Amino acid sequence: MDGGNGKYHLLKSESKRFFRFFLSELKPKGPLLTPFNIVAAIIISVGMVLIVIRFATGLGSVTNLSQEFPWGIWIGFDVVTGVAFAGGAYVLTFMVYILRLEKYHSVVRITVVNGFLAYVFYAGALLLDLGRPWNVINPIIGNNFGVSSVMFLVAWHFMLYMMAEFVEFSPAVAEWLGWKRIHKVLSSLTLAAVIFGITLSTLHQSGLGALFLMAKNKIHPLWYSEFIPILFFVSSIFAGLSMVIFEGSISHKVFRHRLSREAHEKHDDIVLGLGRICAGTMFVYFFLKVLVFLHGQHWSYLDTPWGYWFLVEIIGFVVVPGGLYTQAVRTRNISLIKIASGITLAGIILNRLNVSVIAFKWYAPHHYIPHWMEIWITLTVVFAELIVLRWIVNRMPILSDPPAWAQKKKELKRTIKYIPLEEEKEEWTVSTM
């Protein structure tokens, strides 16, 4: 009985300690009245009201969607584009855990966290677009399974990949909470989760493109092709890595106080390496686009307004950033790589919106234009994701080194040997939110 009472009191005290720790972590790590916080508070507050209106009165009250245009910006941007931006997670995990390119190890966690949050929030955005959101569980519980539907495959890929990314990210949670035994178990699952996640990601990146194979007569011929799944998959590689470069550049400044020494020292080399991969992949993508164009014999469409718009996308947002990446890697110009990443991301947004919204039913006399409330809700989703990401990075070892007990012996030895200079100490003690 005494032993049982001892375990009970120990469990009770540990539970109290955990809840005190968790409540303390919910407190802000910096000043509340910052420009970003003020803007985010306004956008999210109004957005939450709009979301309540959407669920209370239906899609028609906050969107310009219709029977003719059932998919709008919530699908074209929040889901189709957002998933492409999250592609950096499966590419980097493949590079680090499969190819053993340890140079990129310091940015794996932040990339996986970005990917996981993107899937979580874009899955939430998908609920906004469903006329009957409670039916979203049908593919899971077996009610009208629809196993021959591409949507069924995408739904399962989406769900399973979120689970795989959470497992990849979970060791950082265990390190934050100090759960040593659980950390050991979760770390042992990382490689299996990575392999499973890479397989799923390649399937659903192309699966999103396969959705549009059913809309052959609705998408402009310059954007429709039976090779859309391949094009979506290839473009997700440089889209994801461009997002890693773009976000990484911002994180390198905003979260400078959280950066490990390794991440700080290798930042330029990592950016150059990712830029080199983007340049090569964009060349492959451009080559595929040319082959698809020649195969489809679409010459007659070029000398039309739609043809000019198509050339703007291909030349302005594929050839130009691809050339910038190539030149930047040759000259080791980090700033030029960051500019190229921004142009590339804009090009991915344009391409995905062209396929799903802009060039969809291009022949219709009245076209879909998103309502301002649709755009505002999209901004709400983006800002909510950024706030959650900031909360995680400021508390968990995402950019910083893991605690000593969680490091491998080789990493621990290297960390202990490092003794910063006085000026480095001053720089690394800068605090930010």
Structure characterization notes:
- The chain is an all-alpha fold and 433 residues long.
- It has one domain: Formate dehydrogenase/DMSO reductase fold (Up-down Bundle).
- Helices cover 72% and strands 0% of the residues.
- It has 18 helices and no strands.
- It has helices at 2-25, 35-57, 73-85, 88-98, 108-129, 138-141, 150-177, 180-188, 190-211, 228-254, 261-265, 267-296, 299-302, 305-331, 334-358, 372-393, 409-417, 422-428.
- 36% of the residues are buried.
- Mean pLDDT is 86; it is low at 410-433.
Short overview:
This protein is an all-alpha fold and 433 residues long. 72% of the residues lie in helices and 0% in strands.
Tell me the number of structural domains: 1
* Euclidean distance between termini CA atoms: 49 Å
Unreliable stretches (pLDDT < 50, length at least 5) are 410-433
Structural class: mainly alpha
The amount of beta strand, in percent, is under 5%
Tell me which CATH architecture applies here: Up-down Bundle
Largest sheet, described in full? Answer: none
Name of the CATH first level: Mainly Alpha
The total count of helices amounts to 18
CATH topology: Formate dehydrogenase/DMSO reductase fold
Mean model confidence by pLDDT? 86
Tell me the overall shape. Answer: globular
Give the helix level as a range of percent. over 70%
Notable traits:
433 residues, 18 helices, mainly alpha, Formate dehydrogenase/DMSO reductase fold, globular, disordered C terminus, single chain
Helix and strand topology:
Elements (H helix, E strand, L loop, with lengths): L1 H24 L9 H23 L15 H13 L2 H11 L9 H22 L8 H4 L8 H28 L2 H9 L1 H22 L16 H27 L6 H5 L1 H30 L2 H4 L2 H27 L2 H25 L13 H22 L15 H9 L4 H7 L5
